[in-house]
Amino acid sequence: xxxxxxxxxxxxxxxxxVCANRIYIQEGVYDEFVKKFxxxxxxxxxxxxxxxxxxxxxxxHDRAVSKxxxxxxxxxxxxxxVVAGGQKMPDLGANFFxxxxxRDMTPDMAMATEETFGPVAGLFPFKTEAEVIEMANKVExxxxxxxxxxxxxRVYRIAEALEVGMVGVNTGIISDPASPFGGVKESxxxxxxxxxxxxEYQVTKMITFGGMxxxxxx
Length: 218
Known about the structure:
Layout: H1 2-10, E1 22-26, H2 30-42, H3 62-77, E2 81-84, E3 100-103, E4 120-126, H4 129-137, E5 141-142, E6 144-147, H5 152-161, E7 166-169, E8 184-185, H6 194-199
Parallel strand pairs: 1-4, 3-4, 6-7
Antiparallel strand pairs: 2-3, 5-8
Helix pairs in contact: 1-2
């Protein structure tokens, strides 16, 4: 689960449309997850993309940096604790920012409903299945969602309950040319990729026959 969350959250330095924006962890394993997740993030190497050792690069522009800073400050002002990163990296360039992990996130924080599009992972604790589904769906967008479970009944139950167009089960990577890509709510309408994407370019013709009720020929 840690590896999958890392892959989903920090791909492209958190700037892809399918990056996980909120990460919910059941409170029984919360502290252990935070510890392992933070260790992975601290091992990242931010730098020049032409260097082999670099794992993450800069944000796209200064406005993206400002949004990342605003989300971090908002979380801190409401009780969130930064356990990794949280600072600019001016020695590397104006748009470089440390991969950041914030624990003790709550639903009243900006990151609970706004997309960050940056290297900031907000870790939200939850108690019950019903509670986390309500929190996950309480947004205006619905492109992708991810979750981890070994219970097949829960897998189908959660996958159907999530208000998203794409679901990753036990994986943080879902994009594939053979899969229909698209979301629900404010994340758009229709699909690209797969046979469903091709259907968007097709025109369906309906032909209705009449006068076909003659008796069988003897």
